[in-house]
């Protein structure tokens, strides 16, 4: 088994409960970790025998482009889509961070993290 991590995927997205957040947008980062079997690809050196991290990045960017009120909803969509499109993945941890959130204080980021296992 093995782990693939994509760190600090940056997007400009329009999530949030405030109307202004949907109009103005904000900077976000996403960290993704997936568990899969890397033994075959470590021997064959062939992309078809592993999880393509380009596809993982595309899924994250596409789901971040769909507006949601809650970061939890975005993270759930990312997890669901990865499980649907990549059957080799057995576990996903995704963390979605809103940078400089409008919460009335000096906060660098707010982050939600979700972990799911394939059922």
Automatic annotation (TrEMBL):
Tree of life domain: Bacteria
This enzyme's EC code(s): 4.1.2.25
SMART domains tied to this protein: FolB (SM00905)
GO cellular component: cytoplasm
Keywords: Folate biosynthesis, Lyase
Reactions catalysed according to its record: 7,8-dihydroneopterin = 6-hydroxymethyl-7,8-dihydropterin + glycolaldehyde
One BP term from GO: folic acid biosynthetic process
Domain Dihydroneopterin aldolase/epimerase: 4-116
Gene Ontology terms, MF aspect: dihydroneopterin aldolase activity
Top-rank EC class of the record's enzyme: lyase
Pfam families for this protein: FolB (PF02152)
Pathway in which the depicted protein is active: Cofactor biosynthesis; tetrahydrofolate biosynthesis; 2-amino-4-hydroxy-6-hydroxymethyl-7,8-dihydropteridine diphosphate from 7,8-dihydroneopterin triphosphate: step 3/4
Family statement: Belongs to the DHNA family.
General function of this protein: Catalyzes the conversion of 7,8-dihydroneopterin to 6-hydroxymethyl-7,8-dihydropterin.
Protein name stated in the entry: 7,8-dihydroneopterin aldolase
Organism: Flavobacterium xueshanense
């Amino acid at each position: 088994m093995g782990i693939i991590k994509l760190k600090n995927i940056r997007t400009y997205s329009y999530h949030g409960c405030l109307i202004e957040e949907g109009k103005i947008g904000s900077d976000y980062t996403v960290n993704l970790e997936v568990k899969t079997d890397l033994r075959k690809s470590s021997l064959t050196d062939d992309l078809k025998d592993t999880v393509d991290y380009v596809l993982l990045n595309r899924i994250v960017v596409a789901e971040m482009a769909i507006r949601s009120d809650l970061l939890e909803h975005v993270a759930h969509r990312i997890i669901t889509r990865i499980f649907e499109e990549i059957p080799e993945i057995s576990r996903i941890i995704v963390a979605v961070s809103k940078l400089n959130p409008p919460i009335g204080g000096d906060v660098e980021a707010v982050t939600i993290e979700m972990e799911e296992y394939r059922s």
